[in-house]
Amino acid sequence: MLLMSRIVKSGLIQASCDFSPEDSLIKIKQDMIDKHIPLIEDAGKQGVQILCLQEIFHGPYFCAEQSIKWYDTVERIPDGPTVKLMQEYAKKYNMVIVVPIYEEEITGVYYNTAAVIDADGKYLGKYRKHHIPHCSPGFWEKFYFRPGNLGYPVFETAYAKVGVYICYDRHFPEGARALGLNGAEIVFNPSATVAGLSEYLWKLEQPAHAVANAYFLGAINRVGTEAPWNIGEFYGQSYFANPRGQIVSEASRDKTELLVSDLNLDDIQEVRNVWQFYRDRRPDSYGDLVHP
């Protein structure tokens, strides 16, 4: 008997953050959430089964400066208002949603985190960004985030086994491999990165992770420039790569939009039958990789 293909309709949202420096933090945050709601509803109406938003989606990339005022934008996970709101939309559309926000663990201890919500609205868990950059121009993240401490979890959602890697993490193949070893079928990388810094790596590193680990990868980048910092153009081009490392769908460079793609999870087995990277690994010889 022939089995039906495991096709999962997946979506990525890339968006600009248009705000005035004079706006209150409450207004900036609410405006960004309001901007995303129609896109989330569009995804639901199109039948998207798994949706991922961009890095710290509810505001600008504030790491372009070092100011304690942005600490006031943190929320608890899962008890904060944004995750609670996304749980409602997940349940409404029977859609898994990956929600990257600025997380408060306890007062004064903050993380760059993505919450994962299942299709029934249930909170499944979270991933905290491991690798924290602190470099010019305007990526002062150690001022805002502690390094992640929850490992590389893979979440058993209604439609697929989902892993998350966040922005700067993508430069480190070790975590990408850990997600594969933990069973990920789709890995999402919500990001905020600008032209002139990383663009030449954007379509190189993550397809390489996809093929080295034989899973699908969804890469998300915001769009536009953000005053008053103007550290560069967030160049969009969110995309899905398949287990062969091929980019199968891609968003524009400069528009807020929803990218939707059908991912056939049966491709994972097909690729692993050909490229036996997991069989031929030599972890017994890799000990020096984890020396400080």
Task: Provide a short characterization of the protein structure.
The protein has helices at residues 25-45, 81-93, 173-181, 199-202, 205-213, 266-274, and strands at residues 7-14, 50-52, 96-106, 109-117, 123-128, 134-135, 139-140, 154-156, 161-164, 186-191, 216-221, 223-224, 234-235, 239-241, 247-250, 257-264. The chain is an alpha/beta fold and 292 residues long.
Q: Could you please describe the fold and organization of this structure?
A:
By secondary structure, this protein is α/β, with parallel strands linked by helices. The protein has one domain: Carbon-nitrogen hydrolase (Nitrilase/N-carbamoyl-D-aminoacid amidohydrolase), CATH 3.60.110.10. It is built from six helices and 16 strands. It has helices at residues 25-45, 81-93, 173-181, 199-202, 205-213, 266-274; strands at 7-14, 50-52, 96-106, 109-117, 123-128, 134-135, 139-140, 154-156, 161-164, 186-191, 216-221, 223-224, 234-235, 239-241, 247-250, 257-264. The strands form four sheets. A six-stranded mixed β-sheet has the order 5-4-3-2-1-16. A six-stranded mixed β-sheet has the order 8-9-10-11-14-15, covered by helices on one side. A hairpin with a 2-residue loop joins strand 3 and strand 4. Helix 1 (25-45) packs parallel to helix 2 (81-93). The longest helix is centred in the N-terminal third of the chain and has 21 residues, at 25-45. The termini are far apart.
